[in-house]
Amino acid sequence: MKIAIPVANELLCMHFGHCEQFAMLDVNEETKQIKGKEMITPPPHEPGLLPVWIKDQGVDLVLAGGMGKKAQELLAERGIKVVVGAPSGTPEEIALAYLNKELVTGQNACDH
Description:
Blueprint: E1 2-8, E2 11-12, E3 21-28, E4 33-40, H1 49-56, E5 61-63, H2 69-77, E6 81-83, H3 91-99
Parallel strand pairs: 1-5, 5-6
Antiparallel strand pairs: 1-2, 1-3, 3-4
Helix pairs in contact: 1-2
């Protein structure tokens, strides 16, 4: 499985569409291990562009702090699962918490 996490200053970026980079993590769901990590700079922010770009990266799941409803819908239409309300942390901490069913989510940090 491939997980995408929006990142700024090496930590989860609370606003999906305005992150500096995405941490692309290849994970093994069965062993709950991170097999690889790649930091990728997304294209400039334009409404509707990131869901297409993320699909092109082979992503299965996006873990985010906040994301607008339209972006969530566009990702879902492409078969990508979305979890919002993730707390601040490193991409590895967030992904491992998710894999171990320990990720405590709060409110969506985005209100549009």
